[in-house]
Design a protein that fits this description.
The chain is an alpha+beta fold. It has one domain. The chain is built from 4 helices and 5 strands. The strands form 2 sheets. It has a 3-stranded antiparallel β-sheet, with no helix packed on it. A two-stranded antiparallel ribbon has the order 1-2. α2 packs across α3. It starts with a strand and ends with a strand.
């Protein structure tokens, strides 16, 4: 069973799958009661990790494109984002899943106060 964290408002479980569907760490909403949530315990560390992972993915994508272009010259004309999606997206998905699992295991959601 996937780890989950309870919503502080309605106490329904927010699973890893729900966390992966959040568009960003700043726009989290409970899938059951639609209350806006914030998480400040783990999110800063995950954002620091992302600051290191994103340049790594960019570097790897350019290297893969250069390597593939040596064998198939048509690859030079393919947008870099397509090369990323074809080659590294499964690794990115596993990275996002690991972030969601960490957030569910060690995070603590709080109801976001109205501003």
């Amino acid at each position: 069973m996937d780890p989950f964290i309870s919503c502080p408002q309605c106490t329904n479980p927010i699973t890893v799958k729900d966390v992966m569907h959040f568009s960003s760490p700043w726009t989290m909403k409970c899938p059951y009661c639609d209350v806006k949530l914030k998480e400040t315990r783990i999110t800063p560390f995950l954002l620091l990790a992302a600051a290191g992972i994103v340049p790594l993915f960019l570097f790897l994508t350019v290297q893969i494109k250069a390597f593939a272009a040596a064998y198939w010259p048509v690859v030079e004309h393919v947008p870099t984002i397509i090369v990323f999606l074809v080659t590294l997206y499964p690794i990115y998905w596993m990275y996002e899943r690991a972030n969601a699992i960490i957030l569910c295991k060690k995070g603590r959601f709080q109801v976001k106060k109205k501003e």
